[in-house]
Amino acid sequence: MRKAHATEGFVLVPATRTRNQLADLGAVAAGLAHEIRNPLNSLYINGQLLEEMISELPAGGAPQKEDLLSLARVNLKVTERLNDTLSGFLRFARPPAMELALVDLNRIVSETLRFLEMELAYRGIFLKTKLHPTALPILADEKLLKQGLLNLLLNAQEAMDKEEKVIRVATGVRAGRPFVRIRDNGRGIPPADRRRIFTLFFTTRKNGSGLGLPIVRQIVRQHGGAIYVRSREGVGTTITVALLFEEQFRAMYPGRLPLALPEGGSR
Q1: Which regions of the chain are under pLDDT 50?
Q2: Of 31, 174, 199, 266, which is the most exposed, with the fewest CB atoms less than 10 Å away?
Q3: For the whole prediction, is pTM greater than 0.90?
Q4: What interhelical angle do 105-122 and 142-158 show, nearest 10?
Q5: What helix, strand, coil percent values describe the chain, rounded to 5?
Q6: Residue 240 to residue 254: CA distance in whole angstroms
Q7: CATH fold label, 101-252
Q8: DSSP E strands: which ranges in 157-244?
């Protein structure tokens, strides 16, 4: 039987930076410099080509519209990628303060899935859902938690390479803690990559930023949770996010919360 690899423990990110976080930020800075340099080089080279092409146009002649437009569009795409990388970096380096509310994990999962239903259907991906029969009350920042789940679902969607594509999503209680599990039958994660998937800027996708899963890990940490990954190459990947019930959160972090919190609704 294969053991799931626990990528994180039940840790709440403190307000002050820890040594590990400072090390993380150092890795971010190094990775960010690498990520920015390549797109900027592309912008510079394309800028030179544009200058040469324009200078070679005959005086009063018609511009070579298609060639110029093609280069301009490449510049736009590269600039967008650079902007996305910077946005992800800022999200990781300066995580927003959480706005905790009492919410039902089942509802959070259902609303996140509803957002993706049409996209999954368009891609021919079957979605199978099995929610816990009763509410799972947790203290969470609804927006952040949905963002984390959405990132995991998008990763599962991108991993599909079979004719019959299936994503299974379940919620439940295990070892006294609420959880959400996302399982796909995609290509799986190669053994050499499994310990690197939460490494900043590590990605196997051509246009990936390598920030999605580190941000998911950070969101889970902020909620005092843990994330586990089990994968077999050619079979698929299962990711389980274990969270805390309201009373567990209060017991683990006493004094950090008011006695009463608002009940979360749709945002």
Answers
A1: 1-19, 22, 258-260, 266-267
A2: 266
A3: no
A4: 30
A5: 45, 20, 35
A6: 26
A7: Heat Shock Protein 90 (3.30.565)
A8: 165-174, 177-184, 226-232, 236-242
